[in-house]
Amino acid sequence: MQKTLPEELGVHGAASTALAVLLKGVLSSMERLDLRKQLKHLYQPSAKMVEVVDVPELKFAMVDGAIEPECAPGSSPAFQQAIEALYGISFTLKFASKQRSEDPIDYTVMPLEALWWALDGQFDISHPGNWGWTAMIMQPDHITDSMFDEGLAKLRNKRPSPALDGLRFGVFHEGLSMQIMHIGPYGDEPATLARMEEFARQNSYILCGKHHEIYLGDPRRSAPEKLRTILRHPIQASR
Description:
Blueprint: H1 13-29, E1 31-33, H2 35-38, H3 40-43, E2 51-66, H4 77-98, E3 105-107, E4 112-118, E5 131-139, H5 145-158, E6 168-183, H6 189-202, E7 205-207, E8 211-215, E9 228-237
Parallel strand pairs: 1-3
Antiparallel strand pairs: 2-5, 2-6, 4-5, 4-8, 6-9, 7-9, 8-9
């Protein structure tokens, strides 16, 4: 919802004060979602121990791709374009949600996430040359297909990008998973993943599905040793 000053509406004096009070009431009554708080068990895991969670169906904006030869995620043009497209549509949807004439809702845009897998052979986090990926950002439940389509059309007109052609909206259900907060450089993740694999062995779980990372830190602004990344992997009980 865009804030408009009473004077901009041609209203002055006592009427201006009354309208200002009314506008303040409307803005303060807008529903605000704190998704990270609501989903704290999924987005604020412990860094000390591996946890088991049951991840429900959640809505996401998503882009699929693959790391180019001789590239890593940080140097991949396609992955960087996907990130820009995802944040572009996410903020477009946020503003559309706030500006709805009925039931406006404000919320904080969720962090970037990515699923990773090997295009051939076994997935090895230290060798990104054969990685496939799905980059994604979670969207609130009230975001609809029509809102996404309208937002995408606006984004195409405002900021055209090849990555928008691959942008899609859908439901992702991860189910039973194990996760832990990794604190430190991305290059140190193998040690944390080894802890997760040991946890799975000790508790008779089998890894299934795709390696999942949720990026709570910005490598452009944070020191490598302070980066926070949620590492998650679907599991199932061994028989």
